[in-house]
Amino acid sequence: MRTASSTDPGRLERWSTRAAFFIGGFAGAAWAPLIPFAKMRLGLDDAGLGLILLCFGIGSLTTMPLAGSLASRFGIRPLIFGASVLVALLLPALAVVNHVALLVVALLLFGSAIGTIDVVINIQAVLVEKASGRSLMSGFHAFWSIGGFVGAGLVALMLGVSLTPPMVMVVASVLVLGLIGGFRAGLLTDRNPQEEKKTFSLPHPLVLAVAALAFIAFLAEGSILDWSAVYLSSHKSLPMEWAGMGYAVFSVLMLVGRLTGDWIVNRLGQSLVLLLGGLGSAAGFAVVIFTPLAGVSLAGYALVGIGLANIVPVLFSTLGRQNHMSPHLAVAFVSTVAYTGVLVGPAFIGFVSSLTSLSMALALVGVALLAIAASFRLAHK
What we know:
By secondary structure, the chain is an all-alpha fold. It folds into two domains: about 180 residues, Growth Hormone, Chain: A, CATH 1.20.1250.20; about 170 residues, Growth Hormone, Chain: A (Up-down Bundle), CATH 1.20.1250.20. It starts with 10 loop residues before the first helix and ends in a 7-residue tail after the last helix.
């Protein structure tokens, strides 16, 4: 019987990587439509709900720094399999818990499981891509976005035909279990015992630089997720019912960029993709801010999406080429730092906006993206 190995990444290993990315995106998006139901079921106000929802991020940030060391010790397969099974068990629980404390515990565990999948599957992606000798990372990351679209759309559709939230989450759980069961054999089993005791090893300067750039990319993505609708409605006079189009356009173009990203990277090279991505996404923010027309602002969000699409995949590919630090620990560190960008981004935008203006806050994000373009030599391939 053929065993999955990082030295021989075949079709099964590649599709198992895509399936695990899909599971991570699908599960997080499947929970999102249930948030209003949880708010109503527990009688929460907006402030209380906001505090409880932080538990997801806390759970993720708690396990992400540890995931690389655990993958070194136990292998990638048991971690992703165990985290996926935990996700499948928690989805129905999130639909039925009727006590605040239980929801807090469930969200902490749910965030921990998603965070583990996020880190460990990126480790597998780095190893599989490195052994293949060609760019695969953008396509892998595209499946997280595809999972998000499918998760949100499928749950919304089932709720729309009057299925109850518990019934919907059972269906989602069956899908997760089916995917992880079907593709489990392609998850890598390689262990690196020498790294078991280096959970908190000091990152190499190259890894620190990659983490900083990934933080900026995730900060930009988080700012669009949470502030694009507000900005379009309050500064561009777009009706509130249409203000969500900014993030929708951004998401679609990011997905298109990642689906074609491997083809683009293989032809242009990673350095040029990083340079053009940083410049393009910064230019997109400039268009959003300086045009008076809402329609042109939507084009700006599209430009940000296509610009950001392949920045993070290229940065993760860079981790696979460096020899200064174990890929397991480097990916865990960069993932943790990058994820904080999504969490602190909305608060940062709000704080700067309160001191100056929302346009100035978004402009600072655009300027920060120029640092990615300026660092294009990090990706020398």
